[in-house]
Write a structure and sequence with these properties.
This protein has 285 residues and is an alpha+beta fold. 32% of the residues lie in helices and 31% in strands. It has two helices and 13 strands; from the N terminus they run ααβββββββββββββ.
């Protein structure tokens, strides 16, 4: 009871005259380290919680950025692939020069490089008005011709197939001959007399004879000439100009005597006229 009365008196006096301010300040200063120690675990726990939450947020943001970066990289690869494809198609169309013949582009599905059968399959067939006999090109030159057209695909015999022969002409001399497939990566030039002016490096182009292949397109380059004493003919080999095993896109050019495809890419400028369209070429020698 007495302590209560004394407390009330002290509180009243302190409120009226502020006698205990100095004492209160001294006590507060003395207890400050103790208060800090008491609050330290609470503050530390709060800091740890905030750090963990921030770390978790940063990890999530980092993973999100990594995911977005991966998506962008994949999309960029596709974009670059589309750019390269557009460039290939542009080069493919440019490679045929100026022609009134109808042309269309197809993609290579598979290539068969068996020594006894050098063929490839395209992703377009009779549904796209493709039929046997239509010549096939890449950006470098002649690849071969269609020998079979299914509904949604077609088979092309390559110029290196042993069953394929194509009339050619030498750019330097104008000499005509036949380039026959060997079943390997070379062409054999037939029926060359020993007096023929031919040497390694001579360029071969389509002659247009037979009416199947338009004239003036690259076929190959002479790589070897063997003149046999006592033999009536010279043996020569040539390397195909076309990249027979490294193409994704090819170009088909309708011969002038063939019916053009309504959905073909279209005519390109003025014509490459064939020198003789009376007799179609055969795929075999």
């Amino acid at each position: 009871m007495l302590l209560g009365f004394i407390s009330i008196v002290l509180m009243t006096v302190d409120h009226q005259f502020n006698y205990l301010d100095n004492l209160r300040s001294m006590l507060s200063l003395g207890l400050s380290p103790l208060q800090h120690l008491v609050n330290l675990p609470i503050r530390s726990a709060r800091d740890v919680t905030e750090n963990l939450s921030m770390r978790r947020t940063l990890l999530m943001e980092n993973q999100q950025l990594r995911d977005e970066n991966l998506v962008l990289k994949v999309r960029l690869q596709r974009f670059e692939d589309l750019q390269q494809e557009n460039q290939r198609l542009r080069l493919l169309l440019d490679s045929v020069g100026e022609t009134e013949n109808q042309v269309t582009i197809a993609q290579v599905m598979s290539v068969d490089l068996d020594p006894f059968s050098r063929k490839m399959r395209l992703n377009k067939g009779s549904q796209h008005h493709i039929k046997a006999g239509i010549p096939v090109f890449d950006t470098q030159g002649v690849m071969g011709q269609v020998v079979q057209a299914d509904l949604f695909s077609s088979v092309v015999i390559l110029i290196t197939d042993p069953e394929h022969a194509i009339p050619v002409q030498m750019v330097r001399t104008g000499l005509h001959t036949i380039a026959v497939g060997t079943g390997s990566s070379t062409l054999s030039l037939r029926y060359l007399p020993n007096t023929a002016d031919i040497r390694p490096g001579d360029q071969l182009i389509t002659s247009g004879m037979g009416g199947r292949f338009p004239d003036g397109y690259p076929v190959g380059v002479v790589t070897d000439v063997q003149r046999n004493v006592g033999e009536p003919y010279t043996e020569a080999k040539a390397r195909p100009a076309a990249l027979l095993d490294r193409n994704r896109d090819v170009l088909l050019i309708w011969p002038e005597h063939a019916t053009a495809a309504p959905d073909a890419v279209g005519a390109l400028g003025t014509s490459h006229k064939n020198t003789d369209s009376s007799t179609p070429e055969e795929a075999s020698p």
